[in-house]
What we know:
Layout: H1 16-37, H2 39-42, E1 43-46, H3 85-88, E2 96-97, E3 150-153, H4 166-178, H5 189-192, E4 207-211, E5 217-221, E6 232-233, E7 239-241, H6 245-267, E8 269-270, E9 277-278, H7 281-289, H8 292-312, H9 329-346, H10 364-381, H11 388-410, H12 424-457
Parallel strand pairs: 5-7
Antiparallel strand pairs: 1-3, 2-3, 4-5, 6-7, 8-9
Amino acid sequence: ACAISPKATVSDACASYATLERLNRNVKPALDELTQTTDFFSHYRVNLFHKKCPFWDDENGMCGNIACAVETLDNEEDIPPVWRAKELGKLEGPRAQHPGKAVQKQEPVRPLKGKLGEGVGESCVVEYDDECDDRDYCVPEDESATSKGDYVSLLRNPERFTGYAGDGARQVWDAIYRENCFQRSSFPHYAALGKDSSPQGPAAMDFKAVLDAAGRQHVLEQTREHNPLTPFVANTGLEVEDECLEKRVFYRVMSGMHASISAHLCWDFLNQTTGQWQPNLDCYKARLHQFPERISNLYFNYALLSRAIAKLGPYLTAEQGYTFCTGDPAQDAETREKVLAVTTKAASVPQIFDESLMFKNGEGPSLKEDFRNRFRNVSRLMDCVGCDKCRLWGKLQTAGYGTALKVLFEFDNNDHPEVPVLKRTELVALFNTYARLSSSLSAIQRFRAMVEEEENKG
Ligand code: FAD
């Protein structure tokens, strides 16, 4: 009863929290080792500065709103400069420039059926500029850019409190959740949120929230006849009626990502009185503890990523020919060993997420395209995030979820029997997103213990 299918609600009442926490205790040390000690997985190439927000005006690279984001810490003028949001959100460490086409030795070769990345010789950090294919859930990094981005050290730029808040941050989250409003027929997704359309966008039309007599919120959305779901009641009292499975999964992925970001900023919070970085219990209570549904979505994402990583494992073995670091066999072997330590542990529990239930019915293919397009829109929205460090981690995590979805839905796919290429950026994003979720899970457990301790004292 506690198996995590896309239909299941992860909850305390069910053994699944405990199962995932046990799995996490097993996986986390290997995952930390992989993401913190290998060149391959601790550097990310990302185009952070050369893309404009495609959905609204973003003068100064911010969200375009004068009252926006980075400037909105209360009484910012009173705060010593190093603690100001702008400073906190800045990237640190040297940024290596992309080497450019000239340095790139050869075009990647599409792998043969059943083999991931065959012929894709990649160095530990440098990668080839490859076009994304139509099975990608990400936006190709070079879509509208003249520059191919920079290499950034993830270790030197941890995801933590930055002070980015206010209208700018809210505008991005609102736009992300608006993408959840699926329509029956596909429409030009990119244009839907474009500058010329209303801020609500046509997609918002099929979404209506009402309060019942008890003050509980019911979210009523257009029904898809093909996939009626029994009403889903979350612990928060948020009731979603007649919602299609895929739409719910999309929402949960976004909400789980949001919850994970909140967990990190509350755990690694700057106490502006003492100047210490430390957990902020009130922050956790206000953003997560009071909203079990958000925590449930975070665990849901952990299950989804665990499944994707477990599924990917067999494609990353030496026999399958995936090369992590061309030119350095020793480092290649070491990186692979660390990768396989993670994938093996992630696969040590019975299949934890059942993706085969999605995109099954008659409308499956168009629904999947809809889902993919919405996901791409979210990845474009990351260019509207007005804080460098938040944008870095926002981009990485959307790419990570996009890669997980690609692995879950595009591998072993009868319509496309050959395995899609995974680029270095996608692998790095996938494993680092898994690592983010892993540390969110442990932060939440520790926060929970702190709340209990406080309650016992009180
Ligand atoms: P927000 O977190 O902005 O939430 C806005 C609204 O969304 C809430 O009022 C609530 O109605 C709803 N909501 C909140 N959480 C959830 C959830 N899990 N599921 C569903 N709905 C929810 N700040 C940092 O300090 N460090 C970072 O690294 C960082 N990264 C960010 C990355 C992105 C992509 C974005 C958009 C913002 C980031 N921020 C970061 C800002 C941070 O997420 C908050 O927006 C900010 O702290 C203000 O918080 P808030 O309390 O106003 O609510």
